Amino acid sequence: MMGTDSANNRQIRPEGSARTLDLTSTQYYSLNQVSASDIQAFHKCPRKFYLQHILRLGELIDRDPKRASNRGSLIHLLLEWGSTEQAEALFARNQVDEQLAQELLSVVETFQNSQFMQRLQEGNKLVKEHAFYLQLSRNGETPRYLKGFIDALTWQDDGSLLVIDYKTGASRVQSADYQAQADCYALVGLAQGTESVQILMVRPEITDFAGEPEVFSFDYSADQKETLRKKLLTTIEAMEGAQSASLDMVDKEYCKAFCSVPEQLCERRDEL
Length: 272
Known about the structure:
Blueprint: E1 3-5, E2 10-12, E3 33-35, H1 36-44, H2 46-54, H3 68-81, H4 87-93, H5 98-112, H6 115-121, E4 127-135, E5 145-155, E6 161-166, H7 179-190, E7 196-207, E8 213-221, H8 225-240, H9 252-258, H10 262-265
Parallel strand pairs: 3-5, 6-7
Antiparallel strand pairs: 1-2, 4-5, 5-6, 7-8
Helix pairs in contact: 1-2, 1-7, 3-5, 7-8
């Protein structure tokens, strides 16, 4: 029933029913466009993906340049530019202290001087920050698109495509940790009409005694294109149902690291 505020002579809107559903209720979401990082996040932890990308709960903004994600963004920018000439202004905007600035510059300069990077720049065919928007669905299917940016790519003399994705951080990883993203970039590359694509996940912060970065390599051929497309569509369908996704493969320590109330948000509360 509508009421009247006599002081202001205006109607007061009733509160009505709740605008949100309980977390445990069954809900369905349609994801029409996703990025490779979305897919990677889902594979790492379906519940975190659900909370951040579906419910949009997010994390508190922390602009500390020493935080891993912010540090990584700074390195990515410097690698994208290909030089450190703009570094001083970048560091000033982000309140980077002198010690961290030297660390970041050392990482980028070591990488730029590596034999790996020198080979990439030969022939002046290197393309940076390549944007893509790839349709995954066919006529009659639910519209699905893969979007994002590739850090760098270059065409080889044999007509094959080489795709490079920079990975920051110094933690120990395995090739399998990058498989989902490699599949995405491979499909984008194969959509260009090439017969083969090689994906290189490059870690500039991890180097050997000669200053060469750690690299994880993935090879794909044109006959895998349809398999990759169907695989990604299946993954997107699973992402839509992330609320009820199995958590059997999620590292419990990872859960504790990002979530302060896992026992309230996950069915596997006894184990957490």
